[in-house]
Amino acid sequence: MSDSEIFDRALRRRRRDRAAPGHDAFTFLRDHMLEGIAERLDAVKRDFAEVLDVGSFGGSSAAGFALPGARIARLDAGYGFARQAGGVQADEDRLPFADASFDLIVSAGVLDQVNDVPGALALARRVLRPDGLFLGAFLGAGTLATLRACLMAAEAERPVARFHPQIDVRSAGDLLGRAGFALPVADVETLTVRYASFANLLRDLRGMAATNLLPGTPPLTRETLARAAEAFAARADADGRTTERFEIVYLTGWAPDPSQPQPARRGSATASLAEALKPRN
Question: Cα 153–158–160 angle (5° rounding)?
Answer without folding.
Answer: 80
